[in-house]
Amino acid sequence: MKQICVVGVGYVGIVSGACFADLGNRVIALDIDEKRVANLNKGIMPIYEPGLDELVERNVKAGRLSFTTSYKEALDGTEFAFIAVGTPSGVEGDADLQYVAAAARSIAENMTEPLILINKSTVPVGTGDWVADIVKEAQPKPIDFSVVSCPEFLREGSAIGDFMNPHRTVLGSQDMEAAEKVAHLHLPLRAPIVITNLRTAEMIKYASNAFLATKISFINEVADICEVLGADVKEVSVGMGYDKRIGPMFLDAGLGWGGSCFPKDVRALAFMAEEKGLDPKILNETMIVNYRRRELVVEHLTEMLDGSIKEKTIGLLGLAFKPNTDDMRDAPSTDIAKALNAAGATVRGYDPVSMDVARGLLPAVKMFDDPYSMAEGCDALIVVTEWNEFKQLSLKKVKGLMKTPVIFDARNIYDPAEARELGFNYRGMGRGFNGNGS
Ligand code: UDX
């Protein structure tokens, strides 16, 4: 049994900590937020993630997982310290590293025996070396340590499955012996392990996220072309996806990406390139194409409502940035709701799990407890998040409740022909009017 400390019980920290505990390690998870730790000790999770409550409870009961605010306690007898604190976007799109620096300093001040610091947070290329300098400087007396980069590739909503079944584990260090020890911790996951230097590992994370974001922006650009040429992007994606060189994933056109990772990582990679005098054209266009999706929805809906959404009542089906999470960070719903409000519409919202978070963020949006009561009296509905429960809605019932049966399906979850047959004025994204979408 290895002893591991995880610093930061946000998304990555709590999931990684609980999963490492489940693999049989003794994990002490630390956070400086006392309320968060007190809640965890009562079984209250800091985030919504399917399966997390049970995983945490099981491992706490088994004595493999505990929570603390004390670095002394967390580092006592620990050989591995994972840093999993937040790296929000700074003002210029750079990554804000204050929490990483604070964690490194506290670790340095409290470590009493040799330690491997493992960075899980997404940090600019070169941060591993910088962390090493911080630790060296902050140590009261020199104790051996190594820094290893081990970027996470977890998706919100399926984070536990992603941790337990990774496509690969990436490790970067200047100290190969330390990297091998961290590799050992990951062996039960039975995934290929790529060991490289620190900067390359940090870059693999940015390049992977930027590639996926670009893939989505690409299919969204194709969607717009499909629309004017009368093709259906949903079927185009299926046809493309069978090509093994392309693959079927991340080809869902619609509202584009949001959340806590893609927006900040694409921005940060572009920032790093620009700082060195490069002009990262693809990254910049990827962002432009993505944010344009949110404006397009409002423009298309205005057309559907005969040129004006003023005084119209619009219901948003889904508010979280994607299904199976309550995360509202950079969620398309926030920009869409604000644009609709600014154009004089009354905006309503419903989401299966993010309503509490959404209420604080979108005070001008009237929230409803279920999709049907929200639809009652609406002039139009927009599918913003593709929750499964929306795929099961009785569109017939919805139509009977609405003032005018207009649906803008911004995630392409409904069959256009079926929706139109029921009498809806239906529009998806990238579903050409002369093709299947007509
Ligand atoms: C992402 C990465 O997938 C993960 O590896 C990394 O560690 C963190 O960032 P996450 O943000 O949780 O994970 O969600 P993901 O499922 O990857 O979706 C990202 C965004 O892309 C969402 O806004 C989603 O709605 C959008 N998306 C995804 C599409 O618009 N189309 C797709 O085909 C896939």
Automatic annotation (TrEMBL):
It catalyses: UDP-alpha-D-glucose + 2 NAD(+) + H2O = UDP-alpha-D-glucuronate + 2 NADH + 3 H(+). PROSITE patterns: PROKAR_LIPOPROTEIN. The keyword NAD applies. One of its GO terms (biological process) is UDP-glucuronate biosynthetic process. Its EC number is 1.1.1.22. GO terms for molecular function: NAD binding; UDP-glucose 6-dehydrogenase activity. SUPFAM superfamilies: 6-phosphogluconate dehydrogenase C-terminal domain-like, NAD(P)-binding Rossmann-fold domains, UDP-glucose/GDP-mannose dehydrogenase C-terminal domain. Residues 315-416 form the UDP-glucose/GDP-mannose dehydrogenase C-terminal domain. Substrate binds at F153, L154, R155, E156, K205, F250, L251, D252, A253, G254, G258, K322. Pathway: Nucleotide-sugar biosynthesis; UDP-alpha-D-glucuronate biosynthesis; UDP-alpha-D-glucuronate from UDP-alpha-D-glucose: step 1/1. InterPro entries: 6-PGluconate_DH-like_C_sf, NAD(P)-bd_dom_sf, UDP-Glc/GDP-Man, UDP-Glc/GDP-Man_DH_C, UDP-Glc/GDP-Man_DH_C_sf, UDP-Glc/GDP-Man_DH_dimer, UDP-Glc/GDP-Man_DH_N, UDPglc_DH_bac. It comes from the Bacteria. NAD(+) binds at D31, R36, T87, T122, E156, K264, R329. Keywords: NAD, Oxidoreductase. It holds the Pfam family UDPG_MGDP_dh. It is an enzyme of class 1 (oxidoreductase). The active site is at C261 (nucleophile). Belongs to the UDP-glucose/GDP-mannose dehydrogenase family. This is UDP-glucose 6-dehydrogenase. It comes from Candidatus Desulfolinea nitratireducens. The lineage of its organism: Bacteria, Bacillati, Chloroflexota, Anaerolineae, Anaerolineales.
